[in-house]
Automatic annotation (TrEMBL), chain A:
<feature type="domain" description="Beta-ketoacyl synthase-like N-terminal">
    <location>
        <begin position="46"/>
        <end position="218"/>
    </location>
</feature>
<dbReference type="InterPro" id="IPR014030">
    <property type="entry name" value="Ketoacyl_synth_N"/>
</dbReference>
<dbReference type="GO" id="GO:0004315">
    <property type="term" value="F:3-oxoacyl-[acyl-carrier-protein] synthase activity"/>
</dbReference>
<dbReference type="GO" id="GO:0006633">
    <property type="term" value="P:fatty acid biosynthetic process"/>
</dbReference>
<protein>
    <submittedName>
        <fullName>3-oxoacyl-ACP synthase</fullName>
    </submittedName>
</protein>
<dbReference type="InterPro" id="IPR016039">
    <property type="entry name" value="Thiolase-like"/>
</dbReference>
<dbReference type="GO" id="GO:0005829">
    <property type="term" value="C:cytosol"/>
</dbReference>
<dbReference type="Pfam" id="PF00109">
    <property type="entry name" value="ketoacyl-synt"/>
</dbReference>
<dbReference type="InterPro" id="IPR000794">
    <property type="entry name" value="Beta-ketoacyl_synthase"/>
</dbReference>
From TrEMBL, chain B:
<feature type="domain" description="Carrier">
    <location>
        <begin position="1"/>
        <end position="83"/>
    </location>
</feature>
<dbReference type="InterPro" id="IPR036736">
    <property type="entry name" value="ACP-like_sf"/>
</dbReference>
<protein>
    <submittedName>
        <fullName>Acyl carrier protein</fullName>
    </submittedName>
</protein>
<dbReference type="InterPro" id="IPR006162">
    <property type="entry name" value="Ppantetheine_attach_site"/>
</dbReference>
<keyword id="KW-0597">Phosphoprotein</keyword>
<keyword id="KW-0596">Phosphopantetheine</keyword>
<dbReference type="InterPro" id="IPR009081">
    <property type="entry name" value="PP-bd_ACP"/>
</dbReference>
<dbReference type="Pfam" id="PF00550">
    <property type="entry name" value="PP-binding"/>
</dbReference>
Length: 353, 85
């Protein structure tokens, strides 16, 4: 069985993660309940004639994937696998609004063509002329992890040697207004917002793109290797410890083997008790959180994955993502745990290579 | 006619998201497809919808599009002769 190495990364987020070194410039938001991704200049990555039809999500996907490929010194992946919770929601909204506004007449093709969930994967493939396996997973808050699991299995089973895998979600104005209406997003009265020690419901909504080149051989650019991935659609809070314990046992790991845990706390007081394992199972383990930097969206866990990969590569946990004061001399094994509203639980183990 | 041409240029830029082009950069006789503005078949569909929605013109003969969409000038002439709104 082959090993699955992370050999390149590209991350567009609400932070300037695209153009700067790992978390060298960060801003912590506590006043906005919606934060938008920091958009790079796309001219370098997308021809103007193509760019004019692309919504933000497609552009973010193309730019982040270009950076990941460049980082891995790879020109053509053998497969492209994308995870997205909401897909190209901006053009979906445009198309549906146009149907309503024009009483089902005068429907223009552009927004419809770009509105499908697999537009990002398709446009990346078109740009690269990559005719290999191209798949998009739309599985809520485990969309990225499902794409990652598919990629990992294909690499390990020697079906392909290199895969571009990514998580991408963009903000849609109308969808966001519905999320606000049903109180999924924090209200204005809850300011200032915080992820840790929050006492308010809902999340700070956001968007972003995290792309990774996975290959079956170690390179100079390698960040870490993907050891294990596990998904669970639903759990009660009291079941989390067993879920993690069983996962570690299945992968011949003990809690003491985990050098750091990356947790998906998002400041929603109703559901952050799923992460209480930080006070029990992992109270003696260095803990990392990241959604105070990225905000919450279906594929925010790809940002967490990017953080974990960089921690292993740099062998350091930046202060800004450190949840407790614990440090280790070396970070060889990192566990990531994420969930959204008690659903879509995921566990990932990354190891130093 | 002059006002219609200016209006058309603005609408073409808006509907086709020609972000880097200004109204004054489009000449009346510039080719819309090919070497001129470089529009493609998807843009042609957008222009057909534009004629229908804004000027009440339904194009039934697809071959006619080649002549009508040659330039802003030819579009304006066709709209002036055939518009229902």
């Amino acid at each position: 069985m082959k090993t699955c190495y992370i050999n390149g990364t590209g991350c567009i987020s609400t932070q300037n993660t695209f153009e700067t070194d790992f978390l060298s410039e960060v801003t912590i938001n506590n006043t906005e309940n919606v934060i938008y991704a920091n958009q790079p200049s796309y001219k370098e990555f997308i021809a103007p004639a193509a760019s004019r039809r692309m919504a933000k999500g497609v552009k973010m996907g193309i730019a982040a994937s270009s950076k990941a490929l460049k980082d891995a010194n790879l020109t053509m992946p053998e497969a492209i696998i994308i995870g997205t919770g909401m897909g190209c929601v901006e053009d979906s909204e445009k198309f549906l609004k146009s149907i309503l506004d024009n009483k089902e007449e005068f429907l223009t093709p552009t927004s419809f063509i770009q509105s499908t969930h697999n537009t990002v994967g398709g446009q990346i493939a078109l740009g690269l002329q990559c005719k290999g396996y191209n798949f998009t997973y739309v599985n809520g808050a485990v969309s990225f992890e499902t794409a990652l699991l598919d990629a990992k299995m294909q690499i390990e089973n020697d079906e392909v040697e290199s895969i571009l895998v990514g998580g991408i979600d963009e903000t849609g104005t109308y969808t966001l207004s519905l999320h606000k209406l049903i109180n999924l997003v924090k209200s204005e009265e809850d300011k200032p917002y915080s992820v840790l020690n929050s006492n308010s419901k809902g999340i700070v909504h956001s968007e972003g793109a995290g792309f990774f080149v996975l290959e079956n051989e170690k390179k100079e650019s390698s960040y870490a290797l993907v050891e294990a991935v596990s998904l669970q659609s639903s759990l009660e809070t009291e079941e989390v410890s067993d879920f993690i314990a069983n996962f570690l046992e299945a992968n011949n790991l003990k809690i003491s083997d985990i050098d750091a845990i990356v947790l998906g706390n998002n400041g929603d007081v109703e559901f952050d008790d799923y992460y209480d394992i930080s006070n029990s199972l992992f109270k003696n383990t260095p803990q990392v959180y990241y959604k105070h930097l990225s905000g919450e969206y279906n594929t925010a866990s790809a940002f967490g994955f990017w953080i974990a990969a960089n921690i292993i590569k740099n062998q350091d946990i930046p202060e800004v993502v450190s949840m407790n004061a614990l440090k280790k001399e070396a970070y060889s094994t990192i566990l990531l745990y994420n969930q959204y509203r008690g659903k879509d639980h995921s566990l990932i183990v990354l190891k130093k290579c | 006619m002059e006002a219609l041409k200016q209006e058309l240029k603005g609408k073409i830029i808006e509907v086709l998201n020609l972000e880097d082009i200004a109204v004054e950069e489009i000449n009346d006789n510039d080719a819309l497809f090919g070497d001129g503005l470089g529009l493609d078949s998807i843009d042609a569909l957008e222009l057909i919808v534009l004629l229908d929605k804004d000027y009440g013109i339904k194009l039934t003969d697809p071959k006619a599009g080649k002549t009508i969409f040659q330039s802003v000038e030819t579009m304006a002439t066709y709209i002036t002769d055939n518009r229902t709104k």
